[in-house]
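User: Here's a structure from my thesis project, written as structure tokens. My advisor, Dr. K., wants to see whether a designed sequence matches the one we expressed. Can you design one independently, without my sequence as a hint?
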């Protein structure tokens, strides 16, 4: 096993050509790979946030990669430090040929944390290493196959939600998709407004642009307009025939206008035109409004289980905005002027990882 770190290049991580090619090839060939283990994702996160990426790899006697684990070194004065697989992702974790290799990578990650003086390693997917702390009962994922056409898609939505979607389709709202600078500005404005209203700091604008640049045609933005005004927007990734609405939000008028209903139904339509056969609605915290909303669409929650290594005497960092620890801060954040939230938020949010 070796654990090369990624040397700085133009302010973000880069690898020697041989390592980069091997990384890309291994992810492309592995059936369980997610976009969050890809070099595209890891380099985009480092470029946007400055959090260095370390790649733990396992190789056989002939030097072929048999497993890998990208880890972002998240540093924050508010939230502490952790090696996270992967930064700003809802998945990732260990990718390995077999359980023995996975165990080797887990040990390598813990060894790296010790050498860097980092108190924890957080895995957001993949195999659960033996002896690591398990986190369950917090998140659930939502994914299902797409129907063959709009009519079949509508019939697959439970009756009450289907009625809302039909009203949205008849509302006169319009939909556009793209990746232009204007699309990105519109998306960030809507997303920043939405998370401020939820009491959550917004991510740096560069995070979105770097991900779009890294994924090329496999990332785009869908905007819903009321006349000319964008009222709902979502940035999605496409991965192996699955569309993943990743960062989305709406204005205060979006709910009244049923803009979110149109947005997600239109994204299903858009995904089919790109050859996708599956819709991954992402993860939500159990018991929250987004959790209930996705169930209303007919998606069945699948519990997500994460794993964490902790150095002796250390406690897990708390980055959950629903935690009682942050209740006052969340309430105050909702009252901030948008300009202030957009200026301060990225300085805080980049430490969440």
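Assistant: Designed independently from the structure alone:
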């Amino acid at each position: 096993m070796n654990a090369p770190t990624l040397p700085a290049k133009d302010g973000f991580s880069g690898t020697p050509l041989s390592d980069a090619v091997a990384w890309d090839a291994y992810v492309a060939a592995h059936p369980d790979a997610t976009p969050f283990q890809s070099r595209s994702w890891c380099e985009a996160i480092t470029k946007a946030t400055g959090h260095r990426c370390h790649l733990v790899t396992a190789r056989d006697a002939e030097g072929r990669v048999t497993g890998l684990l990208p880890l972002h070194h998240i540093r924050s004065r508010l939230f502490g430090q952790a090696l996270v697989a992967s930064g700003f992702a809802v998945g990732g974790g260990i990718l390995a040929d077999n359980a023995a290799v996975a165990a080797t990578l887990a040990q390598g990650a813990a060894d790296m944390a010790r050498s860097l003086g980092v108190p924890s390693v957080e895995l957001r997917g993949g195999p659960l290493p033996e002896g690591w702390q398990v986190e369950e009962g917090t998140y659930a994922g939502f994914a299902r196959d797409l129907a063959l056409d709009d009519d079949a898609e509508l019939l697959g939505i439970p009756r009450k939600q289907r009625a809302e979607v039909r009203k949205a389709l008849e509302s006169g709202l319009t939909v556009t998709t793209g990746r232009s600078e204007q699309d990105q500005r519109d998306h960030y404005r809507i997303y920043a407004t939405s998370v401020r209203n939820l009491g959550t700091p917004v991510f740096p604008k560069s995070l979105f642009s770097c991900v779009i640049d890294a994924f090329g045609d496999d990332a785009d933005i869908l905007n819903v307009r009321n006349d000319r005004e964008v009222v709902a927007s979502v940035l999605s990734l496409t991965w192996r025939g699955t569309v993943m609405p990743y960062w989305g939000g709406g204005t205060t008028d979006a709910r009244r206008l049923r803009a979110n209903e149109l947005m997600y139904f239109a994204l299903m339509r858009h995904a089919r035109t790109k050859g996708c056969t599956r819709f991954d609605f992402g993860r939500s915290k159990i018991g929250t409004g987004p959790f209930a909303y996705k169930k209303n669409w007919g998606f069945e929650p699948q519990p997500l289980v994460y794993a964490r290594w902790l150095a002796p005497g250390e406690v897990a960092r708390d980055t959950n905005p629903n935690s009682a620890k942050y209740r006052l801060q969340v309430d105050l954040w909702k009252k901030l002027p948008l300009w202030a939230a957009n200026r301060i938020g990225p300085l805080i949010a980049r430490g969440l990882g």
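When you compare it with your expressed construct, this may help: The two ends are 26 Å apart (CA to CA).
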